[in-house]
């Protein structure tokens, strides 16, 4: 078991946008994806021995992914420059996750990308008042800054994830060549999905059969 190499994953991501990608059915959410949009963003790059799936490889799929998570105002579509910024943030979050799990110094560029997203726009709700609701929180932000806002929301979550109580539960999937990260929602959890767990168990059973066959032939 080892950390999936981020550069390898990024290469896989680029290949996924070309013709070298073998089709793969998207995996179900990894443990913790539902708690942290930053983790879920990191896991949009799914590489396993079955192939690579990049859930946000192009502006259309990135728009759909963000809309499903209510991170993008309805009716707004991401253009290619904004989709690229989202991919850059994903690369940065993946590098930071790998660093915190491997207890290694994070790349300066990854910190810079997250910090740029954090300071680009205010993320705090505004205080608003109207006759119906009185004082209330308002998450209004200018539509022309929608991308900056959603990147900031994900970056804020990344900081919470990487420095908060969940950081100690972060892990890379233990299945060989799986690129996903997860939260160990219970101590024994090692795989990002049933599919990865089954694959490892099948490989172990195969190895055991091989060993017992070898013993009989001696
Ligand atoms: Zn996995």
Topology:
Layout lengths: L5 H11 L20 H6 L2 E4 L2 E4 L4 H10 L11 H23 L5 H13 L5 E5 L3 E5 L7 H18 L6 E3 L8 E3 L10 H24 L1
Helix pairs in contact: 4-5, 4-6, 5-6
Could you walk me through the main structural features you see in this protein, from its secondary elements to its overall organization?
The chain is mostly helical. It has a single domain, classed as Jann2411-like domain (Jann2411-like fold, Orthogonal Bundle). The chain has seven helices and six strands; from the N terminus they run ααββαααββαββα. It has helices at 6-16, 37-42, 59-68, 80-102, 108-120, 146-163, 194-217; strands at 45-48, 51-54, 126-130, 134-138, 170-172, 181-183. It has a two-stranded antiparallel ribbon. It has a two-stranded antiparallel sheet with strand order 3-4. Helix 4 (80-102) packs parallel to helix 6 and helix 5 (108-120) crosses helix 6 (146-163). The longest helix has 24 residues, at 194-217. The two termini are 31 Å apart. The model is unreliable at 14-21 (pLDDT under 50). Zinc ion (ZN) binds at residues 173, 175, 178, 180, 191-193, 196.
What is the third-level CATH name, the topology? Jann2411-like fold
In which range does the helix fraction lie?
40-55%
Instruction: State the major sheet.
Output: 2 strands, antiparallel
- Unreliable segments of 5+ consecutive residues: 14-21
Query: What is the CA-based Rg, rounded?
Result: 20 Å
**Which class best fits the helix and strand makeup?**
mainly alpha
CATH superfamily: Jann2411-like domain
The ligands bound in this entry are: zinc ion
Distance between the termini: 31 Å
CATH domain class name: Mainly Alpha
């Amino acid at each position: 078991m080892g950390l999936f190499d981020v550069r390898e994953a990024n290469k896989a991501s680029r290949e996924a946008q070309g013709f070298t990608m073998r089709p793969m059915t998207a995996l179900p959410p990894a443990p913790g994806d539902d708690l942290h949009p930053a983790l879920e963003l990191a896991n949009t790059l799914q590489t396993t021995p079955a192939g690579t799936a990049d859930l946000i490889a192009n502006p259309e799929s990135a728009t759909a992914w963000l809309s499903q998570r209510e991170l993008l105002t309805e009716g707004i579509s991401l253009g290619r420059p904004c989709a690229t910024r989202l991919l850059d943030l994903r690369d940065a979050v993946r590098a930071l996750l790998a660093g915190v799990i491997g207890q290694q110094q994070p790349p300066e560029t990854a910190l810079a990308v997250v910090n740029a997203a954090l300071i680009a726009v205010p993320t705090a709700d505004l205080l608003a008042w109207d006759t119906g609701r009185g004082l209330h929180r308002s998450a209004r932000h200018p539509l022309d800054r929608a991308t900056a806002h959603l990147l900031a929301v994900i970056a804020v979550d990344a900081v919470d994830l990487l420095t908060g109580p969940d950081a100690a539960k972060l892990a890379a999937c233990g299945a060989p060549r799986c690129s996903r990260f997860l939260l160990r929602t219970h101590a024994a959890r090692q795989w990002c999905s049933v599919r990865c767990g089954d694959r490892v168990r099948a490989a172990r059973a195969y190895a055991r059969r091989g060993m017992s066959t070898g013993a009989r032939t001696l």
